[in-house]
Amino acid sequence: MFRALASLSVATLLASGRAEPPGAAYIFPAGAQRGTKTEIRVGGFYFHGSAALSFEGSGILASPTVKETTTIWFEGPLLSEPASQQKEDYPKDYLGEVRVDAGATLGVRYWHCHTSQGTTAAMRFVVGDLPEFVEKEVEGAAIPQTVQLPVTINGRIFPREDLDLWRVHAEAGQTVVCSVAARRLGYPLQVVLEVRGADGKAVGTTRANAPIGSDESVSFIAEQAGDYDVAIHDAGFAGGQNFVYRLTVCSTPRIESFFPLGGRRGESVELEVTTTSKEQRTVPISLKDAVGESLTAPVQLDGKAAGAAVLHLDDLPELRESEPDETPGAGAKAVTLPAILNGRIGTGGDVDAWPIDLEKGQMVLFEVLAEDLGSKLDSLLTVHDSEDKEVGRNDDRAEGRADSRLLFTAANAGRFVVKVADRFASRGGAAFAYRLRATPQAGPDFALTVAADFINVIRESAPVPGPEPDAKKKEPPKAPGLKVELAPVGDFAKDVTLEIAGLPGGVTASGTTIAAKQKFTEVRFTAPPNTPIQVARLSIRGTAEVNGQKVSRLATATRAFGEPPGEAVRLAVVPPVPFKHVSEYLVTNDQPGGTTAAKHFRLERGGFEGPLTVTLADRQLRYLGGVTGPAIAVAPGQTEFDYPIIYPVEIEQGHTSRAQLMVVGEMTDFDGSRHRISYTSAEQNDQVIAITTAPRIKVTTSETSYPAPSAGRIRVPVTVERDPTLAGRPIRLELDVPAHMTGVKAAAVDLPSDSETAVIEIVFAEAPGVVNAPVTIVARTNDPPCVGAAKIELVPVHQTPRGKFAPAP
User: Do the beta carbons of residue 356 and residue 335 sit within 8 Å?
Assistant: First the structure.
């Protein structure tokens, strides 16, 4: 990337462009074992060489910055319409290091990056207790990588149609469990796992049909001692840089589910643990010194680490269900409120029932904690009177939130029964536990959440001398605000006034009232021109009248239970961008693959006179299909440039290729600080648009696959057909070999202008190493620059076949 410097006083800006906010697509690996350090790659957008890295909480020491490195990239199979018409992101790799304390708490930590152009959303990183293995990604067919149990494997399904293969050894009768974390870490991989023995027969398989946030696992019992291959791929054979996963493979029992899901602070809890081998064990857990809402308790079984139980903590008395409890008799003892009621929907159709005695007009808030605590239960909560008539019901507490919540008011004094079931009568099991929090209420109440844990605020531009702006000129669209959402409890309907602490000096906020009966507000922030570029941490509290008294509630970012609470919102003050590139609408209707085309652009500098660098943008409105472009330098004061686009040989013909550019420079702010800033345009006029057609050079070989002998050589006859526009042009033939296949090479061959055939001689080293990917014969002419290519498969002569992994039906 560029290293251009320029001096620019913000007071001289003549334009106020929108900064390209940074973004993060992944961290890889997505976790690490306690007591270790690991190199990480962050997939970043618009980092422009480096970004600050921050982890929340304790137990992790990370590099203060991540710095750009060579991006691992495999093009993979080309997409065709309609998929090729969709947007595509192209993050770059940034290197850093993470050290995890030996005593760090197991579980999720959140991290984010920030630059002068803003802050990214927080993402997850996992602290684990098993040895870790990080995939070394190479191009081509899957190569089995041997790992020792127990292990957590960090991998990526990349590129599209990728399949990763892991080889483990198991003794006869040994149970092996393979479980994946991907979607619950925020990544799009829809996992399929398949396990085969040495004879090629499948011994375990699963196809994921789980909703967002869920992952799959498969277990098997080894019929005989030997090596077993675990394959993982995406259900739709998608893939990408951010298809990150953590695959834990172990033979010792691990926690699969537990009951109850929590306990009372200062006491202890007898945890009924169900393991991956379907054993049920009881483990005592002390909550004597527990604080906060949750406790991550490491669990050992037979002296070996078995994972961690993330327990919900409360101060209320605890009760456990007594089976059967669907129809408590008239003499059943009523629950004394307040209390936490712990139950489990053990089988399909199971209904748990809790009797309570209420006075007329008494209000009780019932809150089911299940999905939020990692349970599989999709709760249905109902209240019944003494004649079993339903008098209250709630399914989901909010859209997308499966746990139930009901503020119930007793119409008459008497016995009521609160029932908990799964929404689907066929479901149940050890993993369908819940905690029902039952608390008397004086009246309605409310809670607040923020839709995001960050917001980037563009600083206002300083006024400039000159004529008044045109009053008829269309105002630019408003930048999005921070959405603060209200969750009413009962019939709450009052104005809620928001108070925001931690605002940088001079920054103001508007939209700080949620009107009665409204569900949200958009808080918008204004930063005056001389506000320093910075990241601040805000806390947002809402105050309203409840039962004649003023009450205050903290707005929090929604996170999974057991994860660090998102109580702060990061606000980044970012500078306006003075410069931008503009062009005229142009479509090239016949752009052959393997050629290069350039488009002319003008620069509107807006007072910025320093050097700039132009590249393809990190985010694209359409899949690029292998299109690339260089980084070109624009000299200080220069106001025009031509940008070349290189179209690959293999590109979808008839595809409307659209590419967006990114212009990057470095400004000096009013306080002397320097900041890298960039501008990207999505306007159609500023895109490089071309309709792609067939290459002008066609390359064919006599065969599509050839043997790959050790310490040998093969001769590959090649035919080259030139487009009439290239008649009489000499062509050079070269062999393009994937970087990891170091034992394969060939000398270049020059094809005279009057010749169409040649022979490429491919030489194999005595120990050529892995040969798992096609090689490409590239034909190239320089005047004009055109490229053609043909791929050939190399088949190792001495290759022992193993069971083939194929897409699930």
Answer: yes
- The Cα diameter of the chain in Å comes to 103
**DSSP class per residue in 683-744:** -GGGSEEEEEE--SEEEEES-SEEEE-TT-EEEEEEEEEE-GGGTT--EEEEEE--TT-TTE
* CATH class belonging to 23-128: mainly beta
Q: How many residues are there in the chain?
A: 809
Provide the percentage of residues in the chain whose pLDDT is more than 70.
92
What is the mean predicted confidence (pLDDT) over 458-476? 67
Say if strands 280-286 and 268-275 run parallel, antiparallel, or are unpaired. antiparallel
DSSP β-ladder status, 513-514 and 569-574: unpaired
Whether the per-residue pLDDT at 25 is higher than 60: the answer is yes
Fold match flag (132-250 vs 697-796): no
The DSSP call for residue 237 is S
pTM: 0.86
pLDDT digits (tens, 9 = 90+) for 380-410: 999 999 999 999 999 988 777 889 999 899 9
CATH class of 697-796: mainly beta
Sheet with 351-358: strands ordered across: 351-358, 414-422, 379-384, 390-394
Contact 653, 694 (CB under 8 A): yes
Contacts of 91 (CB under 8 A, 6+ apart): 23, 24, 25, 26, 43, 44, 45, 71, 241, 242, 618
3-state secondary structure of 189: coil
| Secondary structure (DSSP) of 290-307 | --SSEEEEEEEETTEEEE
Name the phi and psi angles at 641, rounded to 5. Answer: -160, 160
Q: Hey, which CATH number is domain 578-693, 3.30.565.10, 2.60.40.2910, 3.60.15.10, 3.40.109.10?
A: 2.60.40.2910
- Provide the pLDDT for residue 487: 87
**Residue 592: cis peptide before it, omega within 30 degrees of 0:** no
Backbone angles phi, psi at 120, to 5 degrees: -90, 165
Domain spans of the chain, in order of start: 23-128, 132-250, 255-314, 318-441, 447-463+480-574, 578-693, 697-796
Residue 83: φ, ψ to 5°: -60, -35
Structure tokens at 716: 């590959």
Number of CB atoms found within 10 A of residue 268's CB: 13
**286 has a pLDDT exceeding 80:** yes
Measured from the Cβ of residue 532, the count of other Cβ atoms closer than 10 Å reads: 14
Regarding the domain delimited by 447-463+480-574, which CATH topology (the fold level of the hierarchy) does it fall under?
Immunoglobulin-like (2.60.40)
Between 98-102, 145-149, 350-354, 440-444, the lowest mean confidence (pLDDT) is in 440-444
pLDDT for residue 16: 39
Any idea which architecture 318-441 has in CATH?
A: Sandwich (2.60)
Query: What CATH fold (topology level) applies to the domain 132-250?
Result: Jelly Rolls (2.60.120)
Q: List Cα–Cα distances, 428 to 123, 311, 419, 422, 612, in angstroms.
A: 32, 21, 15, 7, 61
